[in-house]
């Protein structure tokens, strides 16, 4: 069973690497926003796991770790997206003193 999970991880990683390599730079920001939405779903799944864990400390720890990673991914993704969008904003005009 564990070997099957490793195969899925390996094939998913290779497929993701191949797909991301073909994305033009103009589509990077919309894809980042989509990735942030997917990470938001991961946050909800982690919260559900924590709520349903009850007295099971292993599930509680797993939910807490997954929630931390998902929040890190969401916040980092939004910071990167904001920084990229700031590159396209117009700079305020400077007043010249004469």
Automatic annotation (TrEMBL):
Set out the biological process GO terms recorded for this chain's protein: NADPH regeneration
According to the record, the segments passing through the membrane are 31-51, 58-80
UniProt keyword annotation of ATP-binding present = no
Has keyword Zinc? no
Classify the source by domain of life. Answer: Bacteria
Q: Where in the cell is it found?
A: Cell inner membrane
Per the database record, which ranges form the NAD(P) transhydrogenase alpha subunit C-terminal domain? 6-90
The record's Gene Ontology cellular component field reads:
plasma membrane
Q: What is its EC number?
A: 7.1.1.1
Region forming the signal peptide: none
- UniProtKB keywords: Cell inner membrane, Cell membrane, Membrane, NAD, NADP, Oxidoreductase, Translocase, Transmembrane, Transmembrane helix
Q: Which InterPro entries match?
A: NADP_transhyd_a_C
Catalytic activities: NAD(+) + NADPH + H(+)(in) = NADH + NADP(+) + H(+)(out)
Q: Which GO terms describe its molecular function?
A: NADP binding; oxidoreductase activity; proton-translocating NAD(P)+ transhydrogenase activity
Q: How does it sit in the membrane?
A: Multi-pass membrane protein
Q: What is the protein's known function?
A: The transhydrogenation between NADH and NADP is coupled to respiration and ATP hydrolysis and functions as a proton pump across the membrane.
The protein's name: proton-translocating NAD(P)(+) transhydrogenase
